[in-house]
Description:
alpha/beta, Rossmann fold, globular
Amino acid sequence: MTINGAEARSVIGILALQGAFVEHQTALEQLPLRRQLEVLLVKTPEDLQRCDALIIPGGESTTIALLARLSGVLEPLKNFVKTKPVWGTCAGAILLSQAVENAKKGGQELLGAMSITIARNGWGSQIESFEAPLDVECLQNPEQPFTGVFIRAPVVVKLHPGPDDQPIEVIARLAPNLLPPALTSPNQSDEPKSFVALRQGLHFLTTFHPELTEDKRFHEYFVRECVFSAKR
């Protein structure tokens, strides 16, 4: 799309109610293709209306959902995810899912954009946070592993796309030897609990925090493969 002969920039919003939204902003603004982007911190329904795509950051999923409802953003978000690219990291991944296990008392509001069930704090407490190398073929320079930072990370429990849903693509998984015993099964190659990055149509999730590294390749992947492709 062009405006007065110039290429229009894609507006990528970052839900800025709670969590690591500043880190995502910094990562996007450091991308080589930043001139094609406008980065917007989203706090109101009016902010969201300006966006072509959205990142929901890590943080505390129930708090983000509560603040979204109090600020009037939750219902617009539910409509936004129906047609626009959205990337959820950690807590954001929980919000994108259709069902959640280990929810806090009172339940967890979800956006239901991806056909998965996810478990909160699947790896355990804060002291059980860890880093792990991830081989990701779809990233730039795939021979260079990406360091996944897992902080009270959720765990994918089940994939359940319906007949009319987009297929789910596994973008990254943890090596079987890195899974704790409680999360392993005899058929480890097909174990959803090893899946740490998934894509379903325009929607994308990572159970870890790419924004907490100096490596911007996941941000570039989201922009190129989800945001720009949606405007073609």
